[in-house]
Fold this sequence. Notes:
The chain contains ten helices and six strands; from the N terminus they run H-E-H-E-H-H-H-E-H-E-H-H-E-H-E-H. The chain is an alpha/beta fold.
Amino acid sequence: PHEYESSTNDARAFAEARLVILNGAGYDDWGQKLLDANKASSREVIKVAELVGKKEGDNPHFWYNPAYVTQVADKITSTLKSIDAADAGYFDQQRSQLTIAFRPYLEEVANINQKYSGVPIGATESIFAYMATALGLNLTTPPEFMNAVAEGNDPPASAVATFQGQISGNQIKVLVYNVQASTAVTTNLKALAASRHIPNVGVTETLQPDNLTFQDWQLKQLQGLEAALKSTS
């Protein structure tokens, strides 16, 4: 997603859209470029970063924060109602259905927080940082390590050494890694964790498999994390 290049189909879709949703915070700059090239006074734009009070340089993985997800859903609903007031009742109904659909996902977040709050974990990149906070887990990995991997850069040697020490000393209970951002460094850390009998839990940046709903995708990952945490307690 970070390296996505827009197509002519994207440009056409943006030009014709009544509502465009951008992640922001430097994650999808290509989208802003399409908006700038196809200005339209009738088009509504939701910039998630601005909505949740973030800026470029901040962690852009907002969909891993359950509170942000709810906030964005509410904003989409209110914006659709302003675009099409005649169908406001339908949009409210759909939002209510989404609340019901989200219930197992949000209940699992609360469940893990209640059972495992304060448990130290590690993560190979920043994608999971928001969720770790929501779960009450203590993410001890050096931020400069996670941010470097998320941006496709080599992490500082000092951060790698610190992370290796945390794993070697069994100072974390679980290692969370981004399946879609594997490097030689993260692969070695996964192997080190396995050698120390620290469970590895994979997460992804995008829907995997892509036929799942957002909430089912998140719930599946959370259940995998809970199983790993349970195995170490």
